[in-house]
Design goal:
Number of helices: 6
Oligomer: single chain
Shape: flat
Structural class: mainly alpha
Distance between the termini: 84 Å
Strand content: under 5%
Helix content: 40-55%
Length: 125
């Protein structure tokens, strides 16, 4: 059966209470749930700690797969990595100084270090 009121301007208006969600209803439910979860987590146990930590430790010890799954769901799905390492801000001369300092800090292995590493930037005079 087709929608008897296809116009979006009147479908969810004040005069039509059906099929609409009250304003901020989801926020109210989410807030109430998080507050109840917080209270349950911090409920004191017999030893003076909190029951939430006890539950986490129990799951960690008795069911590591579930613990890992919970842990994974809390991590962000995508990480943003900036493509500007600190080395990109250095000049060629500064990079050459860092390279030379690294060569000087390497322990002597009986082989010329400069032969094993990729050559540094060539300077033209």
């Amino acid at each position: 059966m087709a929608n008897p009121n296809p116009s979006p301007s009147t479908r969810f208006g004040l005069g039509n209470p059906s099929r609409g969600r009250q304003r901020a209803a989801r926020d109210k439910i989410s807030t109430a749930f998080l507050e109840a979860l917080n209270e349950a987590f911090y409920e004191p146990n017999d030893s003076g700690g909190c029951k939430g930590l006890d539950a986490i430790k129990k799951v960690r010890d008795e069911d590591p797969a579930t613990f890992a799954r919970i842990y994974a769901t809390l991590l962000p799905k995508q990480l943003e990595i900036e493509d500007t390492p600190p080395e990109s801000a250095l000049t060629d001369e500064q990079l050459e100084q860092v390279y030379q300092a690294l060569l000087a800090d390497r322990p002597a292995a009986g082989v010329n270090d400069k032969d094993q590493l990729a050559p540094g930037p060539q300077t033209v005079n």
